[in-house]
Specification:
179 residues; 6 helices
Length: 179
Amino acid sequence: METLKIILFSIAAGIIYGVIHDQITARVCIEYFTVFHPKVIESNSPTLLAFAWGVIATWWAGAFLGTLLAIAARAGSRPTLKASVLIPPITTLLGVMALSALLAGCSGYLLSRGGVISPSGWLLLPAARYPFFMADLWAHSASYGSSFLGGIALSILTYRRRSHLAEKNSQCHRMRTLA
């Protein structure tokens, strides 16, 4: 049951993050969703597109992270961790992802506005929209990148935490045996 809780919490956290993230980026550059992505709903509403893409683009990332974390927290003979123990590190990861997205989005905007970068030639957008598009592209890329790297790091830290618990339990057992 704890394994399922870890996976479901990770999926829910990913979806909530994705919807909030997309609510912001859809307002920065709606074309990121209407031109750069395939049409998934019959609407150009930033709110509706952000809800749709917030779910579509993140549930699987949450499932991937949740599965990694569940294995790291529960598999094998070492002491296991409950899902509730993983809530603070997962929320910290979401904060890191948001900060990464903000910094990358601002960088993409400024670099595009300064003429240093621009979208590919196949993307049909007025030049005035390039900085906003690049802000979205970089923000989304940073969210995925930090999620992937952070998820791996969190899984490793979770497994190491179990190792420390096993070591601590072993020391306590030795001390009881000697007493």
